[in-house]
Amino acid sequence: MGKDKPKRQVIKGEITAPINLPYACRFMKRCDCPVAGVCDKGNPVLREVEPQHFVACSCVK
């Protein structure tokens, strides 16, 4: 038949308005692991964590 679909993960918290984005990480109010002193200082840089898999998050190692 069909493959089992993974359960949808609901992200809680405030959605950032697309107008007047904050200087800090735009997902900080919705994040489960904001890094104090990092996430509130600016947007994280997009970086490759695996081949062809990019993230812009200070929480991901």
Task: Describe the secondary structure blueprint for this structure.
Layout (H helix, E strand, L loop, with lengths): L46 E4 L2 E3 L6
Antiparallel strand pairs: 1-2
Say how many strands there are. Answer: 2
| Apparent shape | globular
Q: What is the overall pLDDT average? A: 81
Low-confidence stretches: none
What structural class should be given to the helix and strand makeup? little secondary structure
Provide the helix percentage: under 10%
- Report the portion of residues in β strands: 5-15%
Describe the oligomeric state of these chains in a short phrase: single chain
Strand arrangement in the largest pleated sheet: 1-2
Distance between the termini: 37 Å
Largest sheet: 2 strands, antiparallel
The total of helices stands at: 0
Radius of gyration: 15 Å
Search tags:
little secondary structure, 2 strands, 11% strand, single chain, globular, two-stranded antiparallel ribbon, 61 residues
Describe the structure.
By secondary structure, the protein is low in regular secondary structure. Helix content is 0%, strand content 11%. It has no helices and two strands. It has strands at 47-50, 53-55. It is globular. The termini are far apart.
